[in-house]
Each structure stands twice: as structure tokens, then as C-alpha cells.
């Protein structure tokens, strides 16, 4: 969806955790692939001249300050001359308030019977009013 809406030619998803270097079960390993290293490599193979790592986090923290820049730098070492940037996390952007408010409004319309379930909730039965 991001690639389609933005027009960027090369878009690769990645997970911060490179579980190949950690002692974690195979099931969890499947959930955390591709790694930043794998995605970086794929971007280069597809002809990228610059790699942009954009963390899908709501606020800055250790992962944004240390882990992701470190993993990106490690991946870049395999591609001398390649430039890269780690962007700010999502939560620092004022338009995120509009996204959150849009989701709230839609869910409230759904529970009042004025809108269908969104694609996230469709079929889950989770988008409903609960009583204590």
C-alpha cells in the first residue's frame, strides 16, 4: 500500500530484530523476517541509490536511538558507498493525530450502526461496545 500510494519504486518491509543471531524458536523467527539487513540488501539489489529506514514506532526510544541505527550501519558496511538515513518515528508527526481520530470516529460510527467494520476489524467481532 505504501509503495502504491507514494510512487517509490523500491519498498521493502523489515523487522528490527535479526533473530538469526538470537536463540529464539523457529516460529518467532518466521514472524521477524525479513531483517533490516535482508531488506537493505534487497533494496541494493533492486537498484536503490539510497536506503531510507523509516521506523514504524509511535515515539523515540532505545530502538530508534541505538538499535535501528546500529543495524542499518551494519547492513550498510556490506555496500560501500551506499548512503542511508533513519527517519524519525511516526508519533512525532502531527498528522498522526488525524489518523488516530479518523480510526476512533469510524469505530464509533460502526458500533452505532452507521458504518461497516474497517478492514482491520472485519470478521473479528472486536469492534463493539463492551459493558462492564
Automatic annotation (TrEMBL):
<dbReference type="InterPro" id="IPR002762">
    <property type="entry name" value="CbiX-like"/>
</dbReference>
<protein>
    <recommendedName>
        <fullName>Sirohydrochlorin ferrochelatase</fullName>
    </recommendedName>
</protein>
<dbReference type="Pfam" id="PF01903">
    <property type="entry name" value="CbiX"/>
</dbReference>
<keyword id="KW-0456">Lyase</keyword>
<keyword id="KW-0479">Metal-binding</keyword>
<dbReference type="InterPro" id="IPR050963">
    <property type="entry name" value="Sirohydro_Cobaltochel/CbiX"/>
</dbReference>
